[in-house]
Amino acid sequence: MAVCSNPIQCQMAVRELCTCACGGANHSRLRRMLDDPGAHEYVELQLTELKAHQAELKKTKRVERRKKRAEARKSIKSL
After folding, report:
1. Measuring CA to CA, which residue among 57, 41, 42 is closest to residue 9?
2. pLDDT band at residue 66 under the 50/70/90 scheme
3. Its pTM surpasses 0.85
4. Which of 7, 26, 37, 48 has the maximal Cβ count within 10 Å?
5. What CA–CA distances, in Å, run from 15 to 9, 10, 41, 64, 74?
6. Is 13 left (phi over 0), alpha (psi -120 to 50) or beta?
7. Domain coordinates of the chain in residue numbers?
């Protein structure tokens, strides 16, 4: 499975166009599964896992942005 930049939004999407990093590989995958009555438990489990994964992504991206800003400030101060 390709990696999504916004996993929940991508896999539960209603619109046709995918703009995340997976390039459409995961687009509306879970949304289509909701039509199957027996798959609701599986979809709910997947959503909880995706929420945890997206929370981790959010934290790591925030740390990366802070590091980049700190490096930029250091380079400006050294000039």
Report:
1. 57
2. very high
3. no
4. 7
5. 10, 9, 24, 30, 43
6. beta
7. 7-78
